[in-house]
From TrEMBL:
It comes from the Bacteria. Signal peptide: none annotated. One of its GO terms (cellular component) is membrane. Residues 351-428 form the Signal transduction histidine kinase internal region domain. GO terms for molecular function: phosphorelay sensor kinase activity. SUPFAM superfamilies: ATPase domain of HSP90 chaperone/DNA topoisomerase II/histidine kinase. Keywords: Kinase, Membrane, Transferase, Transmembrane, Transmembrane helix. This is Histidine kinase. Pfam families: His_kinase. The chain crosses the membrane at residues 12-36, 256-279. It comes from Fusicatenibacter faecihominis.
Length: 559
């Protein structure tokens, strides 16, 4: 009897029985999980239109506030407003300018429907001009706000007390003249109330922990038994949040048939999928699959794997798959050799392309600079420029190496920057931070120079202002970090982020019109030489543009 039991345990039937029991356990757990997940997903879909409605209203209101802010910023720099700020308030000219400011506000204010009032306040004579004339109810809010130290406030602020809240924004013309704008929160709350009541929802508007207005039924006790769900939307630049309270039970009643259909469909698909999987296991495919997996694992090595030879009887389809795999491995191995040879040829083409990128305008402009320096008898400076130009092109003409040291690249860039500083004296602020330990790092030639050149070419647009450029090479957690930072106009949104093997540049629909081909070339060369150890990060914080190259485990790429 014991022997028969042992023999049975070695049979396929016993193994299939164990698989069946395991399948039933997994089935129960998985169905329970998917049922729960389905209910959660369905609830999310039901609530989605209400959330979209709230998001759309807040986004429209934010857009209106941004339009008002843009208008008032421009208006604060208006000629009449500035004249009002510096004129003697006792003269007729001051009065005339004040009425001109009032007329300009009257003329433009109707175009901003959200805006309720504009105040112009002259601190010198405590003159307060209100537009329109019947908006004096905001005046106590302003004085209370100022008494609490609000003179230096920036951005939109919620001020007031219960029943008299408003969005307030002030613009400082100078130390005496202020412009203030108001948006009545009661008008906004009325619009929110109409939206909420039209969809049978409770609502409120709050800032921080304080509730400004809303329905009395809006209470945290609604959430104890998950009978209701809260939807909220906060403003980006204002400490204010809108809330809707949705009755979940009522929504489920309205969508019960959709929920049942989705649940039944999920169960049917789940059962069918597991049945097909169970049938495949019974086809005795485990051994051939294991053979294929081992063959794939061996194929990851640098040596050509041996041909797969299955032992024992296998199904015809798996025999065909193994034979196909053997043919595919042989073909891929041959293709790898061809691709490697093509990669070497591409590296030569990259170097040739760098030679062709020598800017003739840079050469001619530098020669003109040397000629002008000689013409005004600044021979020492002309000699220096000539030596720098000679070193620059000597480096360019010797770009036949696959890799060079970072020190040579930095020296080459310094020659280029010295020439540019001679061309634009006292207009370029160049900062160099170079960790000497990175001098032996091997990099492709002309890796950083295009970044520096493009910074000056495209970032140094306003020649009347000082242009700042920082070139940095440092170590960070075992990685070499090379960065170029400037005060230029920045990069478009689609070219910001960190790019590596997992996140690549999007190829434009029309490559001929691509204005960032230089960045793409640098990115491709980083992947070519360093693979997964390299990444390219492009960022812009509104004031500074930054391109950062990171090479992890840099010491293995040292000379």
């Amino acid at each position: 009897m014991k022997q028969r039991i042992r023999n049975f345990c070695r049979t396929i039937r016993f193994k299939m029985l164990i698989i069946l029991l395991a399948f039933l356990m997994v089935y129960v757990v998985t169905v329970s999980y998917f049922l729960y997940d389905t209910l959660q997903s369905t609830q999310s879909k039901i609530l989605s239109p209400y959330q979209d409605m709230l998001d759309l209203y807040v986004e429209q209101l934010e857009t209106s506030l941004e339009d008002i802010d843009s208008w008032m910023r421009n208006f604060s720099g208006d000629f009449d407003v500035n004249m009002m700020a510096i004129q003697d308030e006792k003269t007729d000219r001051y009065t005339l300018t004040k009425y001109q400011v009032r007329y300009d506000i009257h003329r433009n204010r109707p175009g901003y429907s959200t805006l309720d009032a504009v105040y112009v306040y002259d601190k010198r004579n405590e003159s307060l001009m209100m537009i329109p004339d019947d908006c004096d109810h905001f005046e106590p809010l302003v004085y209370d706000f100022w008494n609490e130290g609000g003179w230096e406030s920036e951005g939109w602020t919620v001020i007031g007390e219960e029943g008299k809240y408003a969005l307030f924004r002030q613009y400082i013309v100078n130390n005496s003249v202020y412009i203030m704008v108001f948006v009545d929160l009661n008008k906004i709350s009325e619009e929110i109330r109409e939206i909420a009541l039209g969809n049978h929802m409770d609502w409120n508007i709050c800032t921080g922990e304080k509730v400004l207005c809303g329905t009395e039924q809006f209470s945290a006790s609604k959430f104890i038994f998950s009978r209701s769900h809260t939807l909220e939307k906060s403003f980006r630049n204002i400490d204010m949040t809108f809330h809707f309270l949705v009755n979940i039970r009522e929504l489920w009643r309205k969508n019960i048939y959709s929920v049942l259909f989705l649940t039944v469909s999920l169960l049917v698909l789940f059962v069918v999928g597991w049945t097909l999987a169970f049938y495949t296991i019974r086809r005795r495919l485990l051994m051939p699959l294991d053979l294929l997996i081992k063959g794939m694992q061996n194929f990851d090595g640098d040596e050509k794997p041996e041909k797969l030879v299955p032992s024992g009887r296998i199904e015809g389809e798996m025999a065909f798959a193994i034979d196909t795999f053997n043919d595919m491995v042989s073909q891929i191995w041959n293709d790898r050799i061809l691709i490697y040879e093509e990669k070497l040829e591409n590296q030569k083409l990259v170097i040739q392309n760098l030679h062709s990128q020598i800017d003739p305008h840079f050469f001619s402009n530098t020669l003109n600079l040397i000629y002008n320096l000689i013409a005004i008898n600044r021979n020492d400076v002309a000699k220096k420029a000539l030596i720098l130009l000679s070193s620059y092109y000597r480096f360019m003409c010797n770009l036949d190496r696959k890799l060079i040291s970072l020190k040579k690249e930095i020296d080459f860039i310094c020659n280029y920057l010295e020439i540019m500083k001679l061309r634009f004296p006292e207009k370029l602020d160049i900062q160099l931070s170079f960790d000497e330990t990175l001098g032996k790092l091997k990099i492709p030639p002309m890796l950083l120079q295009p970044l520096v050149e493009n910074s000056i070419k495209y970032g140094f647009v306003n020649r009347s202002q000082l242009f700042h450029l920082t070139l940095s090479a440092r170590t960070e957690d075992g990685a070499a970090v090379l960065s170029v930072e400037d005060s230029g106009k920045g990069f478009p949104e689609e070219f910001r982020g960190t790019f590596d093997q997992n996140h690549t540049f999007e190829v434009p629909d029309n490559p001929e019109s691509d204005n960032h081909v230089g960045l793409r070339n640098i990115y491709q060369r980083l992947l070519m030489y360093y693979g997964e150890d390299a990444s390219l990060k492009i960022d812009w914080n509104g004031e500074w543009s930054r391109v950062e190259i990171k090479i992890r485990d840099w010491e293995k790429y040292a000379l």
